[in-house]
Input
Amino acid sequence: MLELSFEKEVVKTLTTGSNQWVERKGLYGATPDQLWANFRDKLNNNNYAKLQGHPLTDTEFNQVKRAIEVRTPYEAAKLLAAENGIGKVEVERDDAKLGTVTLELFWKADVAGGKSSYEVVRQAVRPRLAGTQDVNPDRRFDVTLLINGLPLIQLELKKATVELNQAFNQIEKYAQEGKYTGIYSLLQMFVIMTPDSTAYFANAEPDHFNKAFLFNWRTRDNHPVENGLAFTRQVLNIPMAHKMVSEYTVIDQERQSLILLRPYQIYAIEAVIHRIHDHQDGFVWHTTGSGKTLTSYKTAKLAAQDPGVDKVIFLVDRRDLDEQTTSNFSAYAANDDIAINEAQNTGDLMRKLQQNDGKVLVTSIQKLHRAVKKTQAQLATGKQSRFSKTLKQRVIFFVDEAHRSQFGKMQKEIRAAFINSNWYGYTGTPIFNENKKQLKGDLAVTTEELFGKVCHVYNLRDALEDQAVLPFNVEHVTTIGKDTLITRALEKENQRVKARRDKQGRLLSTADEAKIQAKIQAMSVKDLEETYLTPADFETDEHIQQVVQYILQKGPRKTSLGHGNYNAILTTSSIEMAQRYYQAFKAAKKTTHNQLDPDWPRIAITYSLSENEDQSAQKHDQMATILKDYNRQYHTNFDLTDLNLYNEDVAKRAARREAVFAHLQTDQEINLVIVVRRLLTGFDAPRLNTLFVDRTLAYQELIQAYSRTNRLQNRELKQEGQIVTFRVPAIMEANEREAYKLYSGEGSFNVIIRPTYQQAVLKFQKAVVDLKAIAQTPTAADDLKGTTAKVQFVKAFRQVNQQLNSLSMYNDFTWENSEKAFGIAQPEVESYTGKYLRIKAAVTNQEPEKVPEELAALDFSLAVGSVVLVDYDYLTQLIQDWIDEQQQYTTPDQAQAHMTDYLQNSAKVQASLNKLAETQPQQAQLIREAMPYIEQQMQQSQQQSDQNKEPVALNARELVADYAQRQLVKKTSVFAHTWGLDQTALLRVAREHTVGTDEWHHEQELTQSANLAAALQAQTAAGPKIPAILPLYRIKSQAAWRQFIEHDLAIYLQK
Output
């Protein structure tokens, strides 16, 4: 189906049947001015009474336009949600007697009726930015959906042969060109669609678009909705489209971003609200990492708005989760029509529950339990308690991960006290009959027994198929090999039989030994591990040293050190083991240094106070030493009296979510956190990608722990969660299979776990064979004829790159003997990469309409793997890191002390420049020329810092672009003077010319500016010979300026 035909089908689906969308045919191809005029009519009509019959004047409407032309999608969402879900703007009337008026422009709750109107505009035109140096062409938007005249949703449609990611790339490019400004500033949601595939995502700032948050739609029972027209019917209907940009949108204050809910979150919210109306309890089973906090927040908010509900209480069972949940809720609620309260202690909790100023309260179950017991004790002695009134109110409880600590007993007593309550649990790992036997006492009940029937299910397999979480790459490493295990088993079995024979007064016979040998040989590795290994076998110094050396050697690759810089957790069996590991790492780092980061890994240790039950003096002393190390590294001041604050700092520094921790300097990051159980549940850290496991895990503990690593972050850099276990590999693999079966169903193991190394090698080998069938050598890629051959090469190379990325994460991966092992060596991969980049440059540096259709349909984004992809983006980011590192030094002494780092980073930039020059010589030449200018700007910034002035924040991309513009001005000034031309006209011709083509624009204006007399006067002996005859002068000057632009200015005109 062609794009135009598909567009018509989408619009027909939107506007027929019971839908309320109306196509505005009169606005076909509308300009921003026409959309402003349409919105102005809507605004006047919707606020007729407020305007007292006096429509807005031009001056007054300009005030509205200025209010709407916000800088970011986050600010746009705040404007639309302004007050109680009503978007408002204040206008000062020209007529002073009319005063100031507050106009309403959007109503969150006014869905499918009332004042809200719904219009469809096709092929809206967004011209280049007036009054700027914008050289980008006019753009057309396929389908724009207006609510109350405001463009809030935009659809980018492609035909079936175009890759969906290409539509995403196009929107990202338009954003970088500044096309989503002006009236388009309020866009909330993008939909990219072909007849056979569809995705949606929230608007973001131009440099924050992220394919990891490209969402697909699914039905209520988790079947994918890929067909474009089906998506249109299910999601873009009214009221659903209105809800998507209002009720199902979250404004995150902490991250200054806009969040659109996924379908499973919406279904869960609707299911729980339905249960609340019916006074029925239940639980939501959404896999760990799928955004349960966000889901529960939205549900709590809607529940609090129900007039039949008096209070909403969100319960957690740990102080850190209390703070984390409150922080998340507060970030979401800051721009929402809801209040979030946090209780500081039991007394504060009781006071806040008696107030009516906010319905949603976050607290720990321990605080609430104490409040209930205190009230019951008062009532038992005949005393009055104002809190007793609260116990009779309609209270809705939301519970996060309900099977930790003493929840069972506490919940039972709290439920009995709140006689008119309903309870809803949120869990990624429900307890079933199969695994409740692992739990003890009051906890040995299923989730359904605690909360009632499930409201909605979205398990680990659903999430993986939906790409809402990442798969796991699990590798089992053991310090006790199979041969050693069999030897130990034989020794122990011989000792056991010999002891029995000694009691019988007999010697161990040859027959006994043969039976023992046969018994051991017949046992599986799992049986051997279960029978003959104990925890003590893994608590030796030898075991610890082997694990430490493994992490030091393999950890950098696992955490993508150098181009991803993720962090890791090591979980151990006890606090004593955790502290021993800390000391072992500390000692090993004195002799082992990583080339990319000599101080890697920076280590912290954290455990909850409840885990340190024996409170031994030795552990306290060791912890005091660890705190001193931490304070020295991170410029903090913790001691044993404030371990809670220390633990909080470790968690936030490792998570890197909050603004203050999101962009730390390298030496202020934590690379490895050593824990026992802490941080293995409820810890949300997308920057964590690796879990090292030195203990045994099963069922819900295993899923919870592994799921710390599989949060989405950047699909090109983080493709899977990395898991490495160091004990009883056969037992752990069996535990994994049982856990996956329980939480994802039969046959889920191969979906959740990445293939074995040998399977991954076979996939890579096949990709290499396919690539070489198209281009036997990298040089052969230069001889590819025609568009079809280039498309085949691009697709084949992307497969090689994708398989290499996966393969390089395995422990066994090495480039040694790679020609024999893989059919390709590392230098050959790098050469193929260069050929790929040449094709990419040829496509991306041209206007879309000039690129062959088959090539234009391709997504050229490429993940960074074991072969570092050096392109313009990589190199400018490398320079940016270099600049940022230098700018952190506030005195000349500090800069001098780190001169070695400066020189090393400078050398790294130069090496990457040389590599870029192999594939993109003009880009490399521009950056190489710009480097002295960049260093000059860095020195000036440092001088400002020396003078106690605020240093200028430097941006590498902007510095390169600024240098290019300065060179354009400088060189055109000289050339224009030499040839008697107008420099402004020359610059215009240069900027609008595409190098390598015969298309020239505005030359007539430049020709008319030519001044023969001025050229002759400026002529020098060393300069070009200027013809004295006017016609010859004009012909030669035109040839000269074309040659000048095409060759001398080419590197400065790169787009």
About this structure: The chain has a mean pLDDT of 84. Residues 3-32+111-259 form a domain with the tt1808, chain A fold (CATH 3.90.1570.50). The first strand starts at residue 22 and ends at 23.
